[in-house]
């Protein structure tokens, strides 16, 4: 029969029609030789595979095609179809058909994927594309697709495992894939771990039920073995601290499991629901870019100036790396925790920014208010996540960023002995976590506080550098006045510095008022008397003797 002007689907139809009750005899193959060769050439398969595919497409309405269904249709013995098992497997590997296996009866069945049918309908050859060079989002999307196929029994466990291995091997440029491969898990444990990761990433489900693992097991005996190991806490994934028992109201639930915090940090940190990540996984959104920080000249008392210069030298990358390595060689902690304390407006936070700018270090700034939660256990989880994020950033950055706890009074206070109230126990728990994290951290932490007197003694030891930002002396104040108002005469700057005990933040307030005056009234040159008026207004008088400065925090 001529194949001229026939398309792929029409040729498949002819093959299927002529195959009925043909017993796949030699005369059958001779009669449809042209159609077989056309399909073989177009799809890149051999003649037997072309016939088998045609028979399967003819039954593509059925998602559970068995080989005996085909033998019944062509009128031959089942054993004859078994002779073609290698050819059938070749079709599976080409993804032209999919192999399935029901857990109920362990019968091997097949289906023709919808994507293949759509290609054939449009007279196009379906060519499976190896999922390589994927983005993070594409990777997790493909993983979820594979898992869905397995859960709905649309592929065999062997096919699923092969797809998963292929996915990982072809995307080792992704942090997740390379870390997974480095675990060197056997294939059965690998798919179990990926299943829990997928549940967390795609569906944001913390808990995976024991019975859900059945989808990932080879058979009921394998499933039973997995369950026993899990309930005993002896499973490989548990021993590697990748998954753990769930907790319900303080009670361990041995039939539900979740990712450990270590697993989330090491494998899934930065990955959001749906598999997307933060700016390609580099966490740029969490950081203050040091290049965005404007240069600003700061003035301190001599003691503070010397301390800041020393700290700047330490944070210079070459010095920092050398010091860290030498400390490690001596068996000493290599992390640096610093405390900046003193009155508001004395330049604590701005000093951190300028240190970051000068040493090319980005800043991970912590919002203290977002840490504390009214929900039991949430605050503790939040503070752990802060340090988990920072560890990841240190690991991924050529230059370790600075972890900034700004205005950290609320979390660095004295711990309550014999705390009975839930809020007090939460405060103690947060502080204990911070103490432990500082003890073990690698990198740089700088905390700023206005109230050092309330600092827990345990924190004093953890902070290697403790720098008190005193209110500037007359000389420093005069320099601040002149730097912010270059048109101010030196004697006027000295006079203002002597008359008013202002912090740098308060002086900045007055300079801003002068700038507003210039815009509104065109007063370019500083009017000394007007400046004194602004200075007086910066002071809030309470009664006859008591007064409080209003400053710029």
Give a description of the structure.
There is one protein chain. The protein has 553 residues and is α/β, with parallel strands linked by helices. The chain has four domains: 8-121, Orthogonal Bundle (Arc Repressor Mutant, subunit A), CATH 1.10.10.10; 136-275, no CATH class; 285-469, Rossmann fold; 474-549. 52% of the residues lie in helices and 11% in strands. The chain is built from 26 helices and 13 strands. It has helices at residues 8-19, 26-31, 33-43, 47-58, 67-74, 78-82, 85-93, 114-121, 136-151, 157-169, 175-182, 187-203, 220-232, 236-239, 261-268, 302-315, 317-329, 348-359, 368-371, 378-396, 422-440, 457-462, 474-484, 490-499, 504-521, 528-537, and strands spanning 98-101, 108-111, 208-209, 243-248, 251-259, 287-288, 336-342, 363-366, 402-405, 444-449, 465-469, 539-542, 546-549. A six-stranded mixed β-sheet has the order 6-8-9-10-7-11. Helix 1 (8-19) packs across helix 3 and helix 23 runs parallel beside helix 25. The protein is elongated. The termini are far apart. Mean pLDDT is 84; it is low at 277-284 and 544-553.
Helix content: 40-55%
**What is the level 1 CATH name of the largest domain?**
Alpha Beta
What is the fold-level CATH name, i.e. the topology of the largest domain? Rossmann fold
Major sheet strand order: 6-8-9-10-7-11
Our measurement of the CA-to-CA distance between the termini, rounded to an integer number of angstroms, reads 90 Å
Q: Please give the number of β-strands.
A: 13
**Radius of gyration over C-alpha positions, nearest whole angstrom:** 35 Å
List the uncertain runs: 277-284, 544-553
The appropriate CATH architecture of the largest domain is 3-Layer(aba) Sandwich
How many strands, which pairing sense, and closed or not: the largest β-sheet? 6 strands, mixed
By CATH, the superfamily of the largest domain comes out as P-loop containing nucleotide triphosphate hydrolases
Strand content: 5-15%
Could you say which overall geometry the principal axes of the C-alpha atoms support?
A: elongated
Number of helices: 26
The mean pLDDT is 84
The total tally of domains equals: 4
Helix and strand composition category = alpha/beta
